[in-house]
Amino acid sequence: MHEFYSDTQTRPTRAMREAALNVTLGDERHNEDPSTNELCARVAEMLGMEAAVFLPSGTMCNEIAIAVHTRPGDEVICTRESHIIFAESGGPAALSGVMMCPIDTDRGMLTPNQVTEYVRPASAHAPRSRLLLAEQTANLAGGAVWPLEQLNATVDAAKSAGLSTHLDGARLLNAQVATGIAAAEYARGFDSAWIAFTKGLGCPVGAVLAGSHDFISEAWLLKRRWGGAMRQTGVLTAMCLYALDHHIDRLADDHALAQFIGVRLCELETISNILPIDTNIVIADLAPDGPDAREVAKQLKRKNVTITVVGPRRIRIVTHMDVDEADADALVAAMATVI
Ligand SMILES: Cc1ncc(COP(=O)(O)O)c(C=O)c1O
To answer: Using CA positions, which residue lies closest to atom 7 of ligand 1?
Structure first.
């Protein structure tokens, strides 16, 4: 298969698996797993936060953060195409009882003015605006990187309005590699932030959520309550530590491959538009007189190429460590045969 469905489709490399073989293990539920403790300390430092907790998935990071920052009936401000809205199974409503305030944006990025405009005045009739969520990079906007100034200013606007702030950093390290701006700079001002290990970093499991000591101790309570506390997680976190040491810089290769694909797809008649490519995600719109996105995905699958359908006429292609130029050639060749 030529897997362009998502950067979650990577398999751990042999070297990564070997890193897990000789690791000393302990019970993470009692903070006794050495690799897990080391990973949490490293990620907290990378994000400029006091503490961190290892969790099974990015979704759990987002859902725990929302639950810690809000009370039922509160409202959460975010972009309309946030992962939290379209792909977390209604978690904010089911788990935290909050309302979402989805805002239309240019390339998945809010502005300070939008935050000010959408924060509701205190009133017994209205929900309480309580939390700002930001996604760096913005997935459905094509892995778009919020400029640092705009991100900081948006967080400042939320803080001035009394909101808590949370950063979904599923692909924050892609932003770091694309711009040379450290993850901690992007996370500055946020009350909580996380990074994923199962995407560009190539691990099979895991994400780390960071924040203040108080925030993390509340997050730990929900991690236990929701069944996310584990035992000898060193077999997982040794792979995450390996990824921090060996797989961050290589994200630049994924970005270059995405550019290569973008240029090649532009030449096809079936493609009408490609969103700007900042990192490892290519979002392409299909020409109005051709097949729709579902049909294209179906035809590509028959040629062993996977992509994601993200709109009636919009597809997403994601590059990662398990695809290379030969896979990109197969993708473009398959796209050229779509009828
Ligand atoms: C922007 C964003 N946030 C959150 C997640 C959820 O991460 P996980 O798949 O680890 O639950 C994803 C997954 O692709 C994502 O793209």
So the answer is: 58
